[in-house]
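Need tokens for this chain, all 232 residues.
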Amino acid sequence: MSESDALESQRHRYDDSYFSVYREDPKRLAMYRSERSRIERLCQGGKILDVGCGLGLFLSQFPEERWERFGVDVSELAINEARTRGIQVNPFDRAYDYPSNYFDVIVFRGSLQLIPTPFYVLETCIRLLAPGGHLVLLATPNSNSPYYRRYKTLPFLTPHANFLIPSDIMIKNALQNFGLTIVDVVYPYIDTPYAQPIRDHIYYGLGFFGLKRKFAFWRSSMEIYAQKPVNA
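Here are the structure tokens for all 232 residues:
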């Protein structure tokens, strides 16, 4: 498959049926708010880029009086809807057409595994990140987790769309090799609206007897916060 064919395949994959689960989801909205609060502990405002911004629902949580909000997405449907929410999104063929050192925060929220060239895109985004700026991975699958080691998958993965199943070790190593400093790593299970610890541990135990269920669990999802050196 050529690169253009792969791109067209991605565009058709992310249609209205794909995005329908993102609308009017109170649990997802609660996650957006808690994730925004963690970002704002590091940076109170500025230019923020969301790679894989989808419909712009996450970025719309950032007050426009403090944040200049930008997005990247491959889906025309998503791009158009994000723009209606005040998100600035380039056409995909110019997705990263910004000056170097432009953004204060760049976010990958649940998107890194869906990118055909994830490390190239990470390197591109680090070039666009201002010195002292933060690169943040949110809602990112962690293959170095009990659930993945047991089941060889994670409940929120879309198997036909994944190019990479990252681990915390892999991504920390990559970001450090790109010259960033790891500020924090968070595994947001217990404080999320998806966690039901008693049920989840029962399901995990029953998995050894062949029971298969989708459930949230420790370290399945990770957040990594990294900073570009001030003198970069």
